[in-house]
Amino acid sequence: MAKKNKQSAAAAEAAAEAKRKEEEESEEEIEVEEEMELLQVDVGDIIKVKQILDETVAGTIMSEDLSAHGEAVKIEEEYTHDNIKLFLMALACGFAAVAQFGFATDFPKNRIWLGVCCASYFCISGILQLIMTFIDKDCIMQTKPLTDPEMIKLVKKVGNKEMDKYGIRVRSIFPRFSEYYTVILEFQGKDPPSEFVKKSWSVGQFFDVEGFFDEEGMMLEVEELYQRFEAGNFDKPEGSKAKKSSKKKSN
Fold first, then answer.
1. How far, CA to CA in Å, does 80 sit from each of 73, 87, 138, 139, 142?
2. Average per-residue pLDDT in the chain?
3. Could you tell me if 43 and 208 are in contact, meaning their C-beta atoms sit under 8 angstroms apart?
4. Is 74 exposed, middle or buried (CB count within 10 Å of its CB: 0-12, 13-18, 19+)?
5. How far apart are CA 118 and CA 50, in angstroms?
6. β partners of residue 170
7. pTM of the entire predicted model
8. Does pLDDT of 33 surpass 50?
């Protein structure tokens, strides 16, 4: 009888302890929800809206649970291109600083070197502008090819056979006076036309009337788009669709 009483008392204590832990966890969840603040922007500011959407896309691509395989497949960002641009920017600023604080004080004695520094600054700035206009275009980030054998094996098993050879070029398009924001994932460095996946969303899907941003909803959409790329379910070029429709009409 005493043993039964001891067992029942122990079971009651265990149940009380489990109930207490559940209450503490629920209180913590409530606190986290209360602390979470939604980002609010002026939806009429197209540049700011695109900036927030681009940052969310880039952040989602670098998240640990992006892949359909979870943390087993991790994407790394490629910084080489950005580092080159930063180096050129720093070099241009260096020439400008030398011209302003070094040679300008002894003008006109140092006018030749001052002219060299000014010309160098404008040349490097022009090169940067050409890079952003003709190379970067609508690209917001680039990733490295997969190098880990286990990651490559998992991805190739799903369907994408070239993620070990090429990185991903992430592009975004948000035309002026348009409500649709488009994200394109394609292979970086592959000879065009590269395979790609593409999806467009109405901005109203992620921003309400007051300008509050549904970041989690956007992240889920980008994850779905990436997993389609990872699985090799690429979109067909618009030109091929037009050719097929013209062939059907002629038949």
1. 22, 10, 18, 14, 9
2. 85
3. no
4. middle
5. 34
6. 141, 185
7. 0.76
8. no
